[in-house]
Amino acid sequence: MNDNTTTMADGAGAAWMLARREWVRFFRQRNRVTAAILQPLLFWLLFGTGLKGAFSGSGELDFMQFFLPGTLGLIVLFTAIFATISVIEDRREGFMQSVLVAPVGRLPVLVGKVLGGAAIAWVQAAVFLALVYVISTVSFSSSVVPILILLAVIAVAMCSLGMIVAWPMESTQGFHAIMMLGLMPMWLLSGSFFPIPVLDAGASWGQWVLGGIMRANPLSYSMVELRRLMYPQIDFAAVGFAPSSSVCWIVSIAMAVVATLIAWYLMRGSRKVDVIV
């Protein structure tokens, strides 16, 4: 009993130190801090201003309001990419091999990496959200609490997906290529940038295909719930795809859990990737 308690404490300590290391590394890279905040802000301002007149949107929202939840998702996505790429860098520098031979096992490594990256992503999204409240783009209300919780769930899911890609990858170039090929379309097809097509008798076959793909994307449910929490006065079910809040939360949490379990499965699998340099 005592040995098990000691092992769990050691594992928790190792996970905490790895998560803290991600924070130290993040704040020592000032360009990364600046880019992580300013890039999504620029996207929001440029796309929101440029497409504001051409957008016939979702309910009463203009494009800047519609794109706001997608911008928060983009902040989390970019941070997940930069946070999980450190797995490849750590392996090249020999740090990861040193961690993996420690007696605490591999689970603390996964927990530390995912929670460290997710915490960075969550704080950046929270800072951007505070800015949105300050300039009154969204009215401040008690819904800020579930918004922050949902952002934490999305951050864990994105960092776990990043670990799935980064763990067997040999080069940072390959990692970026796969992430841009996988996660960016996942974000674009989540209703972040344009509404999910309504599938009725008047829909074309292309809208049926696109609408089906977007409905199968678990991130779509997170974006629907995020938008509903930001604009509770709008009935999104009357203007398009809007499953109930309970369905959105279940799918979002399931996405984070399944992605983390797959990442854990990969880390416990073949030891060949441990020696990739």
Topology of helices and strands:
Layout: H1 2-28, H2 30-50, H3 63-84, H4 86-93, H5 95-100, H6 107-134, H7 144-166, H8 172-192, H9 205-216, H10 218-230, H11 245-268
Quaternary assembly = single chain
Low-confidence stretches: none
Sheet with most strands: none
Q: Average pLDDT, to the nearest integer?
A: 81
Which descriptor suits the 3D outline? globular
Distance between the termini: 39 Å
Q: How many H/I helices?
A: 11
Q: Name the structural class.
A: mainly alpha
Helix and strand sequence: HHHHHHHHHHH
Portion of residues within helices: over 70%
Instruction: Tell me the total number of β-strands.
Output: 0
Strand content: under 5%
Radius of gyration: 20 Å
How would you characterize this protein structure?
With 277 residues, the protein is mostly helical. Helix content is 74%, strand content 0%. It contains 11 helices and no strands. α2 packs antiparallel against α3, α3 packs antiparallel against α6 and α6 crosses α7. It is globular and about 60 Å long. The mean pLDDT is 81.
